[in-house]
Pseudoazurin
Amino acid sequence: MALAAVPAEAKTIVIHMKNKGAEGSMVFEPAFVKAAPGDVIRFVPTDPSHNAETIPAMWPASVKPAKGMINKELAVPVTTPGLYGFKCLPHYGMGMVALVQVGDVPAASVAAARAVRLPGLAAKRMNGYLGRVK
C-alpha cells in the first residue's frame, strides 16, 4: 500500500498595525514574515488610523492586489511564491511597510524589490526586511 503525501495545513499569520512598536513609530508587527503558499496573512488594526495595502511594484504579477480600509482587518491569502510588499497608506512616508516572503524567492526577485523606490524611512525599513529573505 502506497502512502499519499499529506499537505501541510494552512496557517493564519497575524500582523498588527501599531502606532508604536519595537522599531519605533508607525509599524507593522511583525514587519517581516515567512509564509507558505496557502497561508493567510491577517492585518489587525491594534491602534486607529491604519490600513494595509499592496505596494504594486513589490507584488507577484499574477496575484490580484489587496487594499484594506482604514481601521478594518484585511485577510490576504498568499498562494503564489514571491515577495508581497505592504504599506499603510496614511503612514507610508513615515516608514510603515511590511514584507511577506512566500515560499522560496530567487535572488533576482530580491534584487528587483531592492530597486523599487520607496520614501525615506520606508526604504530603510524595507531594505532591512529584504536582507532577511532566504
User: Anything to note?
Assistant: Helices lie at 107-114, 120-130. The chain has one domain: 12-130. Strands lie at 12-21, 24-29, 32-35, 39-45, 53-54, 74-78, 82-87, 97-102.
